Write the C-alpha cells for this entry.
Amino acid sequence: MSTATQAGFSLLASLPALQVVVPMVAAPICTFLRFRNGPWAFALLVSAAVFWISVMLLQQVLTHGVISYEMGGWAPPIGIEYRIDEINAFVLMIVSGISLVSLPYALRSVEREVPRDKHHLFYAGWLLCLCGLLGITITGDAFNIFVFLEISSLATYMLMASGRDPRALTAAFQYLVLGTLGATFILIGVGLLYIMTGTLNIADMADRLGPVSDTTSVRAAAAFLIAGIALKFALFPAHFWLPNGYAYSPSAVAVFLSATATKVSIYVLLRFEFTVFGEVAAFQDLHFARLLLPFAVLAFLIGSMVAIFQTDLKRLLAWSSVAQIGYIVVGIGLGSSDGLTGGIVHIFNHALTKAALFMAAGAMFLRIGSTRIDNLAGVGKIMPWTTLAFVLAGLSLIGVPTTAGFVSKWYLVLAALQHGNAGYFLAALILFSSILAVIYVWRVVEVAYFREPAGDATVREAPLSMLVPLWLLTLACFYFGLETQYSVDIARVAAESLLGIAR
Amino acid sequence: MQWLGQFNYYVFAILMMAGIYIAMSRGNLVKKVVGLNIFQASVFLLYISSGKVWGGTAPIMADGLERAISNPLPHVLILTAIVVGIATTSIGLALIVRIKEAHGTVEEDEIAEAEILYEQELAKLDAEAMTQARADAAAAGTTGGKGA
C-alpha cells in the first residue's frame, strides 16, 4: 500500500509519527542523565523539536488539507492511522508550545520544589506526559486515544506527587482514582462502539455507525464516553480532583497541566461528539454536548464563586480553571459555528492566560515560600514585574477588551445571543461570572499593592528565567487580544470542519 | 435460556458496579485500589467476551486450515489495557506508601484530619514568621534611625 512512502525515508512525511515518538524515546534517555541541569536541558531541547514539528504540521494542514499517516505502513482501518486536521494541528501546537515556554520557567521552580535526586525522573515524567497528550491529539484510532490518555495520566499522577508538599500525595491519589474511573469509562465506551461497528478507526467508525445508531449499545457507549471524558476535563460535578491537584503540585506542573491536560480532554470530547456521533441522525436530535450545558453553566458560576473565598492563590486559580472549562463547554454545547469557534479559541486563550497566572503564582512561591494570599501582602512592591504580569493576565482572565479573554467571551456571548430568550439569560450569566472574576482577581491585587510588605528584606524579584516566559505569555494574551487573525481564524476553520460546513 | 449465553455480560455488569462501589465508598486507600482493579478487570471481561465466536478456536493462521476462529483483536487490546491496569495499581500503591510515610495512616478520614493539622501548623508558622519579620523591620528601622 504505502511502499512509495516507505521507499525513501522522508523527514517531512514522517513528521506525524515523530511528533509522538520523539518525546516517547526521549523520556527513558532522560532518566540516565544524572548530571546537574542535564535532564532539564534535554527536555527543553526535545520540547523545542516537538514544537517545531507541530508548527510544520499545522502549516502543512493549512495549505494541503488533512494529513493521514499510516503507522508502520498498515493501511487504515486495520492499521493505526494518525489523522491531522485543522483542529488537532491547532491543539498539538498549543500543547507543545506551552511545554516549550514553561520548561525554561521550570528550571528554578523545580530546583526549589522537587528534591534534586528526583530531577531526572521528573523531566522524564514531563516528556511522557507531553508524549501522551500529543498522542491523544494526533491519533485517529479510538483505542489509541485510551492508551495515550493513560500514558499522560500516569505521568501526571507522578508529576503531581513529585513535590515536597504532603497534601500533593492525597491530591494525586484522588486524581488517580477519578482519572482511572474516567479512562475506564472511555474504554467501555470504545469497546461498545467496537462491538457495534467492528472498527476502531474514528473516521471508519463514523461511517459504519449509521445502521446501528439507534441501539441501546451505541447510546450506552455515548453515555460512557461523555461521562468518562467529562471526568477527565473536570466538568463541574466531576471536578473534585482539580483544585487540590493544581494547588499542591509543583508550580511548573500546575502551569503545564492547567494549560494542556484538560484542553486535550476537551478535544477528545469534540472528536467523539462531532466526528463520530455528529453525522448520525439519531444523535443530532439528542445532541449530547447540549446535555452538558447546564453543568457548564453551573461550572462557571460555582467555580467563580468558590474562587472568591479561597485563601490560597494557587487554589483560587485552580477553581477559576473549573469556571473557565465551563465557558469552553458552553461554546461546544451551543453547537453553532460561533459557539464552537468561541469554545475552541477559548481553549487557546485560556491556556495562555492560566499558564501566565500560574507562572506568576509559582514565582511568588519561589521567593516568598507560600502562596497563601495573606502572605502575599505588599508583593507588588517587592516583586513588581511578577505582580504586574499577574494583573495583566488577570485582566485577560476577566475578559477585558484588548485581551485574549475578551475575544473568546465575545464569541461565546455572540453565540448565546442567537438562541432567543434563553440565550439572553445565558449571556447575562456569562457576564455575571466575569464580574465574579473581577472580584477574585481584585482580592489578590488589593493584598499585593495596598498592604504593607512584611518587611522581609531577603525577598526580591523573581529570576529572569521565570520572568521571560511569564512576560512572553502575558504579552501573548494581549497580542492575541488585538490580532485575532491566527487564533480566531484557525479556530473558525476547525469549528466549521467539525460541523461539516466546509465539506 | 438466552440469558445463559449472555452470562459473561451479566458478570461484567456486576463486577463493574462492585468495583466502582468499592473505589468510591471505602475509606481505606488500599481497598480503593482493589476496587479500581476489580472495575478494570470487569472491562477486560467485556472485551474478551465480545471476541468469542461459538465453536471458534485459537486464531492461528495456517495453510489448508479453514475453520472458525475467535476474534483476536479484543485480546490484543486487552493485553495493552492489562499493562495499563498494572501501571495504575503500582503508582497507586506507591502513592499509598508515601502517604503512609507522610501521615502515618492510610484511612481517608484520618488523612483529612492530619491535613487539617498540617495546614494549621503552616498557618501558625506563617503568622510567626510574619510577626518576626515585622519586628525585625521595626527594630532595624529604630536602630537605623538612632544611628543616623
About this structure: The longest helix of chain B spans residues 108-147. The radius of gyration of chain B is 29 Å. Chain B has five helices and no strands.
